[in-house]
Amino acid sequence: MSSAINTSIKASETVLTTRLTNQDVQLEQSIRMLSTDIPATIEGAETRLMHRFDGQDTLLEDAAQQHYVQTLYLQDQAQDVLRSRLLDALAFPEMNERRNTIEGRVVDFGETYSWIFDPAGEGKARSHGKKPHMFVKWLRTGQEVFWISGKPGSGKSSLMDYIYQNLQPRGHGFAHLEAWANRRPVRLLSFWFFRPATSVLLKSLEGFWRSLCFQILDIDQDIAAKIRANVDRAAPNSLRACLVKAGSHAQSWTNIELRSWLRYLLDHSAFNYCILVDGLDEVPNDHEALLDAIRFIAQGSNKIKICCSSRPEALFQHAFQQCPSLRLQDFNYRDIMAHCSERLSATRCASFEMKIADRADGVFLWAYLVVEELRRAAIQGDDEDDLERRLEECPSGMNELFTFLIERQDTFYAKHPKSYLRLIEVTVRNKLGPLSLLEVFVASQEPEMLSCNFPDNLNAQFLARLDAMAENFEANAVVRCAGLVEVSEQDIDGYFPETFPYKALDRVHRLRAGFIHRSAQDFLVDSERGAALLQACGISELEALRRVMTARSVIFLVNDNSSSDASILRAARQIKGASWTGFDSEVIDHTLRTVLKRTPRVFPPPLTENKHSNVSHVNHVDGEDLLCEGLVCPLLSPLQNIVFICCLQFGLTPYLKGKLGVLEQEELTLVAGFCASLLLDLDRGGFWPDGADYDYEILAMLKPHLSWTLNLTLCHYWPGADFYLYVSRPFWQHIRAYSGKGFGNDTALKALRCQLEALDVSGSYSTGQALHLRAWFVAEDLQLVCTEPDESTALVVSTLAKDFDIFKINIILEPSAPGVQFYQCSPRGLERFLEIDSSTSESLHKAFSESPSPFPDSAAECIADILNRRIASLTAVEIAGIVLSHREWGIHHCTFSDGQFHAVFYDSWLAWKRRLMDGVLDQDFDADPEHDPILNEILKALEEEKTRR
């Protein structure tokens, strides 16, 4: 039994040993497999993780690249906005008018003037014994000024236009400029003075400065960013002020300001510039100031050179005696020969070209007029002897030639003259704007034809009759004016509709009539023979003005595409006093009714008892009309508002007198007060053109009908905020100034008091007693002075608080010491007013009255000081609202740090915001948000701002 047990035990041991051995083998295999799989598993996991990280890196890189591209795009967009604001501020519609007129005369120069860019021709004169020009040498190596002089009619402006076209990139002469610039980029600037221009900006230094600044900003697209960054602190404040939101163009600037702008732009631009200035003698006054401007530009930098042209007047000869120059008449001989050959080649006088060129003595206009005279005679059948006799009889001087051409006029035309010359001369001399050939045509018709049953007579039958008569009018007008006028294509607003069936009228409407040259107008005005020619036209200057006004109104009334009445009212303004007729009033009545019909206006609703409804938001109205940008009387109809505003805007004194004469006493008092308030403008010259000439005549007319104590309710339009605000005050307290330039200037305030005294200030105050006017002064991209609203409530303030800093001011019209007191301030972002102490008031008055900027840096520092003095009265929410209100430039931003407000520049304000958003708080605050309610509110506002974006 024990043996069996032993055998069984041994068998169990053997089985157990075998099982353990197998398990050992399996365990060893498992361990071996694990030792192999774990690194592989780890390696696989690492590989998968790396792939994931690489994918995330790629996504992050893509996101970063996308963010970078988007940032660049936004920066480019922001920079484009800045450039647009600056360009809008400087632009004026007539900027290129003169050059376009010159280019319209000469579409293709051919070989004319090609000698100016011929280096080989510089050493030899084109006329025997004359001094050679060195223009190409000056272009390539010279500095400062090159002067082109020439007799009247020698073609100076045409040569300057040829130079302009060929100094553009890829032009014939551009390589010469590139040689001078020595691998720097180079561009051309230009300005074309023109004395007969309607716009004063084409014949003044202001237009000169503005145009050059505009062109630099248009060429150098990076310079706006330099102005904003202002790294070297050299950018003029008034220039930086134009970086703010749209509206800066409403301002005007002094020549000193604009001159400083140009110097900054020239110094900071990446380009070299060659500047062409045509017609120095076309500036009516102060040639010395113009020459100083030329020297200022030319001597300020080696990156600048100037080519200018003028008649050879003594002042210019002395100023440019040391400069390289050329006399144009010395180089015109061959070009005149070529012109004669081209025009006379197929006529019997083809051989006269040398004789004409000799007689012309370099005066292209003389040659042109003589050639056309001979060509007409040749076509009419004159033989060669007659033609030569005609040439010999042509006098050499321009005035004598004009007289000769008039005397050689067709005898029928001489016996039966038309009014064309008088109409054109009156329009040009009185600066009534461009005159279309259609206006000349309509104005030359018999007055009874236009006035009979006006305006019901302007029907299809009337237009068809005019259309038939206008068929050959273009040629007839030129011939009847003895060649003194020319007709050219013009760009106009208000072409006739495409469906307009009267094609002859449409054609002459697209043409502009004007003198062939300034010397032609001078001849008519200054010479005895020219004056006699105007007298022979058979109509007086007064009648010519009335005809131009009527013709413009007729064309306006029959042209549904036209909505501008300004040219009609400018002509009406020249008809004075007793010369005004009932028909004149009828013309203006129908014109203004049509204006209102074609251009719907948004007027404020009637005044109500609900104060909240008395802040009326409106849509801005573009165009020449100023009704929505001034005062509106809600108690008058829209048409009455238009009538009386236009009377004041254009000085239509006799028309206004007629309108006042038919009113009942109560309405007369209302209208007189409204008109008087329109004249009480602190910003004289800004709203009403040439206002000082007729203000006092109108004031004297209004004076008997005014009440100094009766409240007059008017709607004040607030630019920028885009709403009307109802204000009820006596008429003399409805003051405003839209640019605010000089509002605190003693001269402006004294002028205002003089106007009030002209209305009989003793009616309300004793003579010598001070007048006090309470007003609001709003400062941003422009300055607005406006009568204090009836209710200075949170409603009005909250409407403006996000966009404006508002000051309550007291305008003191002391006879001896006028001035302005600032007594309360509502900083941007705060919807209530804070008191201002006397010392801060003086600082603000000094800042705003002396600085060219609409919001000087020192004023921003005053606001920070006001806030710090009243900091205990401000809540955390108010402080957050103030510091996070957005300004777009300058030192007009506030940060809050170390328990104080600080006036800082835009970049510093952005850096402060970024610190807080990134959680870097200890530089500006001692406590964390949980323990600092101001910091907490600022961070909450920043988070909300981030969410909105």
Automatic annotation (TrEMBL):
InterPro entries: DUF7791, NPHP3-like_N, P-loop_NTPase
Pfam families in UniProt: DUF7791, NPHP3_N
Record-given protein name: NACHT domain-containing protein
Gene3D superfamilies: P-loop containing nucleotide triphosphate hydrolases
Keywords assigned: Repeat
Domain of life: Eukaryota
Domain Nephrocystin 3-like N-terminal: 134-311
Domain DUF7791 residue range list: 410-536
